[in-house]
Amino acid sequence: MNGHDTADAQAIELRTGDWATLGAAAGALRTAVFVREQGIPAEFEWDEWDARSVHCVAYRGDEPVGTGRLLPDGRIGRMAVRADLRGQGIGRRVLEALVAVASARGDTRIELSAQRQVEPFYRAQGFVPVGEPYDEVGIVHVKMRRSLIALGASACVGLLAGLCARPARAGALDAVSNADATSALRVALERGAGQAVARLGKPGGFLDDPKVRIPLPDGLRQAEGLLRTMGRGRELDELVTAMNRAAEQAVPQAKQLLVAAVKSMTVADAKGILTGGDDSVTRFFKSRTQAPLTERFLPVVTQQVSRLGLAKRYNSLAGQASKLGLLKERDASVERYVTTRALDGLYLMIAEEEKAIRRDPLKAGSKVIERVFGALR
Asked: pTM for this one?
């Protein structure tokens, strides 16, 4: 397990998902770090757990630069960061994303096997050594553990202390408790999630809204003009309609998981959202729900697109575009492309609903929301 990261990483996108989605990127990184760099025999790198784990891959642009996995029993492993980008916080962000997934699904603790030289890195992330060091594939390791219950309790020390450090807000926030702040945000996010699902999960929810409407992937759009001159314009229009209808059918599946994510939110999560900038809501929901929502959306999207008879045509066109380098690999399947764009639209809409509540807390009709968000304005 590798991880020499302490500073913030810039322009890094985190994606969580299954091995089918992220395995190619994660596998390439692990081969580079563990097999080629550290000399670990390739046969020890791959096991049956990959297919059963949640994976996280950090991307800089289209390049995978960091990875890790979370096993069903709460073990985190296969943490790796590209050699030339270590020390930029990428490993920390991958680790935080996997911890968030474990917390959201109800794990009470997480464990990992750390190479001895990176033990200080994991200590800084709240892990403590358990037992004596041991040899694994010729490298000294130490087992480390972190309690998620203890993390939640210690996080309650000070949402408002952090917020009150901002002088302009200090006076108004003095009268707001940690519990009130967290409660207000939970109510706001739960309402926002419900409203977003209601807006998108109906006919025209995606298709008629330019902010979330799912277009042709870039590779097909590059060929759109030529295809239309060949008389295939109607087919392209039908494809766009079908993709958006499929997203509209899938979105109602999200409500239960979104509400569960909100209910699992700690005071530390609330602090991060309230002070984390315009994309803090999107980052919170992605870290908690992206992998399980992908699993829920895919069957619905697959059924809808297949029912309209367009999947085979899309996959044929997109597969060819992908081979020519015009289409990203993740967009080469209509089902995965629609699922990814549907989730992007859903997270965007939730963030917009939450921003609307911040702008006009009176409209929410909740006294605690009015107190907290009114103080934060």
From this structure: 0.49
